[in-house]
Amino acid sequence: MLFKSLGEKVYIKQPEWKELGFVEWLWADKDTMKDVGGTVKFNESRRVGWYQRMVQPTDGTNFYCLIYTYEDLPVGEVSFHRFDKENRLAELNIKIAYKYRKKGYAKEAIHLLLGYFFYDFGGEVMADRVAIKNTVGQKLLINYGFNFINDSNPDIVLFQLKREEFIKLGKK
Questions:
Q1: How many CB atoms lie under 10 A from the CB of residue 95?
Q2: Does the first or last residue of the chain, that is N or C, have fewer Cβ atoms within 10 Å of its Cβ?
Q3: If DSSP codes are grouped into helix, strand and coil, which group holds residue 92?
Q4: Peptide bond just before 57 cis, omega within 30 deg
Q5: 12: closest CA among 85, 93, 126?
Q6: How many Cβ atoms sit within 10 Å of the Cβ of residue 168?
Q7: Burial of 120 (C-beta count, 10 Å sphere; 0-12/13-18/19+)
Q8: CATH dotted code for 4-168
Q9: Distance, CA of 17 to CA of 21 (rounded, Å)
Q10: Could you tell me if 81 and 62 are in contact, meaning their C-beta atoms sit under 8 angstroms apart?
Q11: What angle do the packed helices 135-144 and 105-115 form, to 10 degrees?
Q12: Which pLDDT band holds residue 73 (cuts at 50, 70, 90)?
């Protein structure tokens, strides 16, 4: 059974195979992808391996969901990647389609994913490397409660949130 978690404005769920057309559209949308390095091709030949690694059955280090409104409209994606079992750390990914931004969807989707990551999956630290020019992404993480961590890469800003901090935020 695929994962699903409900919020007030949106819900997140692992996509069924038939929903991957939205992922292809999202990654190809220039306005959505300009702050995260540009568009990505998600053709049929790439989908099988990606779906097995990220959704079902997963490789145990990646977890991927689509973000839906309660009108069942897909508006973005939220996931974590490269879970390090020794340090219990993963890297966050969040993308809201450009035309659906500024509605509170990203913050709520992050909250839903972090709830799963910290309480069910057993994670201890969520990190995100954000491009120095992506000030909107940086602001989102700061407003959520992520901490800036000094990174030696001048093009990247590193943020992290620990499980204890998530609990203190009272956002279960």
A1: 23
A2: N
A3: strand
A4: yes
A5: 93
A6: 10
A7: exposed
A8: 3.40.630.30
A9: 9
A10: yes
A11: 50
A12: very high
CA distances from 156 to 34, 128, 138, 153, 159 (A): 15, 10, 10, 6, 10
HSE-up (13 A, CA, CB side) for residue 26: 20
Tokens of 155: 């093009």
The Cα-based distances of 152 to 81, 130, 139, 156 in angstroms read 21, 13, 20, 8
pTM more than 0.90: yes
- Which residues face 81 on adjacent strands? 91
For residue 83, give both structure tokens. 């879970």
Q: What is the largest CA-CA distance in the chain?
A: 44
- Cβ(171)–Cβ(111) under 8 Å? yes
Domain residue extents for the chain:
4-168
Q: How many CA atoms lie within 13 A of 13 on its CB side?
A: 17
With a cut of 90, say whether residue 118 has pLDDT above it: yes
Residue 86 tokens, joined: 């020794």
CA-CA distance, 111 to 144, in Å (whole number)? 8
Percent of the chain topping pLDDT 90: 82
The neighbour count for residue 61, using CB atoms within 10 Å, is 14
